[in-house]
Structures are given as structure tokens and as C-alpha cells.
Amino acid sequence: MTPFPDFHIALRLALRVRFFSISFWLLVALGIIVWTASQFSGRQPATVALDVGLSVIRLALPIVAVLLLQELLSQEFTRKLFLTSMTYPRARHWFLLGRFLAAFLLVLVLLSVLAALLAALVTVIGQGYKQSTPVALDLRYGITIAFIAVDIGVIMAMGTLLAVTAATPSFVLIGTLGFMLVARSFSAIVALLSRDSTLVGDAETYRLSLNLLGYFLPDLAALDVRMITLYGQMAFLPPDWVVRLSATIAYAVGLIALAVWALNRKRFA
User: Fold this and answer.
1) For the stretch 43-67, what's the b/e string if a residue is b when 16 or more beta carbons lie within 10 angstroms of its beta carbon?
2) CA 217, 152, 238, 38: dihedral to nearest 10 degrees?
3) Cβ atoms 99, 186 nearer than 8 A
4) What is the DSSP letter of 255?
5) How far apart are CA 67 and CA 89, in angstroms?
6) Residue 206: count of CB within 10 angstroms of its CB
7) What are 110-126's pLDDT values in tens digits?
8) What is the pLDDT of residues 53-86, one digit of tens each?
9) Stretch 25-52: mean pLDDT
10) Residue 156: which of 105, 194, 87, 81 has the closest Cα?
11) CB 26, CB 64: distance < 8 Å
């Protein structure tokens, strides 16, 4: 028994829920936002276009990923479709892994298309304007996109766990986006409070409380390494990036393992 039958079924389900339509409108939105931002900003146009484009990708792609997980996993339980899709002798873990891998593959393809479109737009926008710090659309851009892929992989792993354990599909969306927001921001807030303790009352207690989140959540803000492509300098890459990347991937694998454990013990009404 392998996850491939469930993988193929999941791909067909994802394509049936207007994944192509959503992807098309996301590409259109990215093009309009990037072009508009570059035309109405006082900064270097190619840098602004790339910066805004990466922000749009990091914000929109997790939402698409969670919607996919809702359709492939949460709705499966809500509509009781598992009565046919999880029949004996199909193992539950193959069902879960097949659905997760299908959703992740589709998101990676969409990420690649978005990244290619953004690179083309930045190249066109940057023509005829010589910047003092040109953007780097080479290996450094590829590294930035790879870090975004890992970031989204962790978010999808959390979404998978919530899809198995949550009672309602809406909680999958709310819980996963809440996880993304906290994991991407807590370390930045801690750094800000360390530099200026006058921002809030009792800043030290507040900062120590936020530091505790580091024991439970991955620091997704550390995976935002866009500075290396915005300014073309690898010096902006954190020196401990291998450790951070490895820890984040291990965290995602742990979440998937926990989701498999929860599904194997789940009792369906």
C-alpha cells in the first residue's frame, strides 16, 4: 500500500475546487500590485517591486494552501466522505500523507509560477533605471523562494494537524492563520522591545513572556531572507541559517507525525 492512490485522488479534488481559477486571479493580482507599487513609490522601482511582490506571495499563498487543506481533509470528515475514501484495507496514514503531499505539490507549483512572474516583472520594471543597489535575480533569489517554500510547508503541516483534530473547518483557517501570524512576528517584537523598552509598560516582563513562545513555535520571521535578493548581498543571510532551516523542517515533520498519530486514534461518529 502506498500514498499514491490518495495522492492522485487529492490532485483531482484540488483541481475540481477551482484551484486553477484561484491561481489565475492570484497571478493577476500579483502583477497589478507589483506594477502599481513600483510606479508610485519614491524608492528604487525594481527593489520596491520585488519587495512588495515577495510580501504578496508570503501573505496570499498560505491562505490558498489552507483552503486546499480544508477541501482535501476537513470537508472529507464534515461530509462523511471518509466512509468511502478510508475503507479497509487502506491505511489512514497513507490517506493523510497522500492528501498533504498533493496539496503541498500544488502550492509549490503555484509558488514557482508566482516567483517566475515576479522575476519577469522586476526585470521589465528595472529596465532603463540604473539602481545604486541592484536586485539579484540569480541564486540569491532562488534561496529566498526556497525559504518561503519551507515557511509555507510548516504552515501547511500545522493546518493538517488542525484539520484532523478540529471539530469545524472554519477553525482550520482561523487556527492556521493565527499560528502563522504569531510565528512570524513574535521574534521581531522581542527584538523591538530589546532595542526600545519605552514602547510598552513593563517591557521586560512582556519581552520575557514572548521569549517563551520560542520553545513552542518555530521562528518563521528568520526564514524571511529577502534582503539577500533585494540588495544582492549574501551577508544578510543569518550565519546560523542551516540550524534554523533544519529545526523548522524538523518541526514540520513532527507536526505531520502528530497528525498521523491523531488520525489513527480518531473515532468517527
Assistant:
1) ebbbbbbbbbbbebbbebbbbbbbb
2) -130
3) no
4) H
5) 29
6) 16
7) 999 999 999 999 999 88
8) 999 999 999 999 998 888 888 777 776 666 666 6
9) 89
10) 105
11) yes
Helix, strand, coil fractions of the chain, as percent rounded to 5: 80, 0, 20
Coil/strand/helix, residue 87: coil
How far is 66 from 203, CA to CA, in rounded Å? 34
What grid cell was written down for 124? Answer: 521589465
- Burial of residue 256, with CB atoms counted within 10 A of its CB: 0-12 exposed, 13-18 middle, 19 or more buried: buried
What does the alpha-carbon distance between residue 18 and residue 216 come to, in Å, rounded to a whole number? 35
Q: What is the pLDDT of residues 203-222, one digit of tens each?
A: 777 777 777 777 888 888 88
Sorting pLDDT into bands at 50, 70 and 90, what band is 92? confident
Could you say which DSSP state residue 214 is in?
A: G
- Bond prior to 89 in cis (omega within 30° of 0): yes
Question: pLDDT at position 255, please?
Answer: 94
**H-type helices in 86-168, by residue range?**
92-126, 139-165
Q: What three-state secondary structure class fits 127?
A: coil
Distance CA 51, CA 38 (A): 10
Rounded to whole angstroms, how far apart are CA atoms 159 and 73?
10
Specify the DSSP class assigned to residue 74: I
Q: What distance in Å separates the CA atoms of residue 83 and residue 46, rounded to the nearest whole number?
A: 52
Cell of 196: 526600545
Q: Cell 498519530 belongs to which residue? A: 261
Compute the distance between CA of residue 174 and CA of residue 184 in angstroms, rounded to an integer: 15
